[in-house]
Amino acid sequence: MADPQKKVTVALDAEIVARTRDVVGDADLPDAAVIERALNAYLLGRLLDATQATSDLAAEQADQLAVDEVRAYRRERGLVE
Question: Could you tell me if residue 2 is inside a domain?
Answer without folding.
Answer: no
